[in-house]
Design brief:
Blueprint (H helix, E strand, L loop, with lengths): L1 H19 L17 H25 L4 E7 L7 H4 L9 E8 L5 E6 L5 H4 L17 H12 L4 E3 L13 H11 L1 H4 L3
Parallel strand pairs: 1-4
Antiparallel strand pairs: 1-2, 2-3
Helix pairs in contact: 5-6
Amino acid sequence: MKKAGIIVPVAWLCLTVVACMSPAEVPTSREEPKLLTWSEQIRVREQWLEKRYEMLLPMMQAHDIDMWVVVNEEFHEDPLTEYLAPPRPYVGGRDIFVFIDAGDDGLKRIALVGFEEENLARFFEMPRFSPDPDKPRSSEKVLAALYEEYRPERIGLGIGGRRGVTRSLTHESFHYLSKAMGSEATKRF
């Protein structure tokens, strides 16, 4: 309590001295840094993205995650999307970003999005939905095919949480993934 009794008078004294100084005598802080243009900001954020991908696979392996799925819904963006995908707006209804530990092939990144975007293709594989009935034609079929191909033991999903960055997957999206990948995969979520 004694400390607070000293700090208040000292702060009051400093404010009084500054208020009594002429504008020319008021100390100025360093010049504000120049903000980057929007294009420069995107370039920097995309450089960070490459570094994040380098760290992602070791983190997945450290936590025994073989596949990680991030679902970004229209009007309910996953808080992690901006850290995992290029800085662009995503509004394709339900966009799904899948990260897979592909063994010797490293980290496999797949984006299942409603609208193809050229810059997104620089960072993710983006399967085209084929009219051929024997090939995946929808995100549900692509998810099922990925599950069958890689057979992940543990599938990471962001569910619940008390903080903004942990409030990711909605109940509806959980059911969507469960239906698309099957009950066996759901047990591995």
